[in-house]
């Protein structure tokens, strides 16, 4: 199956037109100007019980426009708390960025009590479906003004933030890391607009190794003095009903986005709908809403506002699947010529180059596995939560990993114990558990090794661009 697409060239595209149609029935050659792909059906089938679409034909047009525009015209505008991050895990609520601080037991009890009281009072107002955004806004300003004042009043120190994040239960939706890595590889900018505490948002991204070059965070960032004590808010206060691209109009980053007219917007509240305000001359804005709580009460409102509603879906499966269909590069010149590209009818992946073999439908849609990763100096990102600058060689990484494997096979330690202590992946926090994933979500060597493993078996060392892994197939 075909997962990642390379840049196209005029010669390769033109050569397709003078040859007979590829004979493998699973592949369909389609004209780039109009494919007619039922994208809404494709999205719905990813999670039939969780995906809600009010207007399938509109969703078809939006995604089709994004496929035609290619990755060069795409940008993502996303909320952070309870959008990129999970709302709950194993039946328990997950910390938001403010919650990372509010649940840190080493802060003064009086501060924690006051912030908890504020959240209890104002969150009900934010989520009240009977109130308009305009009616809610004064309450949000009141909430954030009070919360910001408490940071200074109780002498909160930014140097504590890394420890706060490490001790929290904040967690990203399953597949968020794969989606953000893919966006980074495709050089698609991701603008994170957060009404949370910006310094902690950045710290969480760094902890999970997701603060990539394509990521820009616009949030409530705080200044601090030489001791690290918070002194004041830097810039304008951002709350849930005023966060949008207008906040970056005067920045160099905004100039980078001006040629990107296709937007995938991800949010979990009605206030998130305006995040794409400020996008210049938008061609297509696909609004995806994560409905995490008060589902029966809020579903009608979400259905009216978002193009795709994901009901209590704690994964990034749907956005990731759409992003994977958007080719890395399509030159608009070739669209005017009606050039052909090929779509895998099983995976919906598109590519310019003629397939070399028939597409195969996987008999195993998803697997579940844990892994232990040891990075080296030639890894794609030679840093981790354990080491900021990794200098070991690939050979040294392999030797270390083989030592861990020996400990596991001899019974001296469990896989989860060693992964928790020594893995250079953020999944170390969960004993190396990656959760369920399907074809195309992981790097190819990792995917092939995992799908080939019997359940309960551990792999030999596996090499990827990330480093050297051992994999334990769990389902």
From TrEMBL:
One of its GO terms (cellular component) is cytoplasm. GO terms for molecular function: 5'-nucleotidase activity; magnesium ion binding; nucleotide binding; peptidyl-prolyl cis-trans isomerase activity. Residues 352-369 have a biased composition (Basic and acidic residues). Residues 364-475 form the PpiC domain. Residues 352-388 are annotated as: Disordered. Keywords: Hydrolase, Isomerase, Magnesium, Metal-binding, Nucleotide metabolism, Nucleotide-binding, Rotamase. Residues 324-357 form the WW domain. GO terms for biological process: nucleotide metabolic process. The keyword Metal-binding applies. It comes from the Eukaryota. CDD domains: WW (cd00201). InterPro entries: HAD-like_sf (IPR036412), HAD_sf (IPR023214), PPIase_dom_sf (IPR046357), PPIase_PpiC (IPR000297), PPIase_PpiC_CS (IPR023058), Pyrimidine_nucleotidase_eu (IPR006434), WW_dom (IPR001202). It catalyses: a ribonucleoside 5'-phosphate + H2O = a ribonucleoside + phosphate; [protein]-peptidylproline (omega=180) = [protein]-peptidylproline (omega=0). Signal peptide: none annotated. PANTHER family: 5'-NUCLEOTIDASE, 7-METHYLGUANOSINE PHOSPHATE-SPECIFIC 5'-NUCLEOTIDASE. Belongs to the pyrimidine 5'-nucleotidase family. This is 5'-nucleotidase. It comes from Tigriopus californicus.
């Amino acid at each position: 199956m075909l997962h990642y697409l390379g840049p196209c060239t005029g010669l390769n595209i033109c050569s397709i037109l003078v040859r007979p149609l590829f004979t493998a029935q699973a592949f369909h050659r389609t004209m780039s100007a109009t494919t007619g792909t039922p994208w809404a059906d494709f999205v719905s089938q990813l999670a039939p019980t969780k995906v809600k679409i009010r207007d399938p034909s509109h969703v078809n047009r939006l995604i089709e426009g994004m496929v035609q525009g290619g990755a060069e015209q795409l940008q993502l505008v996303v909320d952070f708390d309870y959008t990129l991050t999970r709302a709950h895990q194993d039946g328990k609520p997950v910390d938001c960025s403010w919650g990372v601080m509010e649940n840190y037991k080493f802060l003064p009890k009086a501060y924690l009590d006051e912030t908890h009281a504020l959240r209890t009072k104002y969150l009900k107002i934010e989520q009240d479906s009977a109130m308009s955004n305009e009616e809610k806004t004064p309450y949000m300003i009141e909430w954030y003004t009070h919360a910001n004042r408490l940071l200074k009043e109780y002498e909160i120190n930014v140097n504590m933030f890394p420890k706060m994040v490490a001790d929290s239960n904040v967690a990203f939706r399953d597949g968020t890391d794969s989606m953000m890595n893919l966006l980074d590889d495709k050089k698609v900018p991701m603008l994170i607009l957060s009404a949370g505490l910006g310094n902690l948002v950045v710290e969480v991204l760094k902890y999970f190794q997701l603060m990539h070059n394509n990521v820009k965070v616009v949030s409530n960032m705080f200044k601090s003095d030489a001791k690290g004590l918070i002194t004041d808010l830097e810039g304008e206060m951002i709350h849930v009903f005023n966060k949008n691209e207008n906040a970056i109009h005067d920045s160099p980053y905004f100039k980078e986005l001006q040629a990107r007219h296709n937007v995938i917007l991800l949010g979990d509240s009605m206030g998130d709908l305006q995040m794409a305000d400020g996008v210049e001359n938008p061609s297509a804005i696909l609004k995806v809403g994560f409905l995490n709580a008060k589902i029966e009460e809020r579903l009608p409102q979400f259905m009216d506002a978002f193009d795709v509603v994901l009901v209590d879906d704690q994964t990034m499966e749907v956005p990731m699947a759409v992003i994977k269909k958007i080719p890395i590069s399509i030159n608009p010149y070739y669209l005017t010529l009606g050039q052909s590209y090929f779509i895998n009818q099983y995976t919906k992946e598109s590519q310019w180059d003629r397939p070399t073999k028939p597409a195969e439908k996987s008999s195993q849609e998803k697997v579940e596995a844990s892994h232990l990763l040891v990075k080296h100096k030639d890894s794609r990102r030679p840093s981790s939560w354990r080491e900021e600058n990794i200098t070991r060689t690939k050979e040294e990484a392999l030797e270390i990993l083989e030592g861990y494997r020996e400990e596991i096979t001899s019974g001296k330690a469990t896989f989860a114990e060693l992964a928790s202590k020594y893995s250079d992946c953020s999944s170390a926090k969960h004993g190396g558990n990656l959760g369920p994933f399907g074809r195309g979500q992981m790097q190819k060597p990792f995917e092939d090794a995992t799908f080939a493993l019997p359940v309960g078996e551990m792999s030999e060392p596996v090499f990827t661009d990330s480093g050297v892994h051992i994999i334990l197939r769990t389902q």
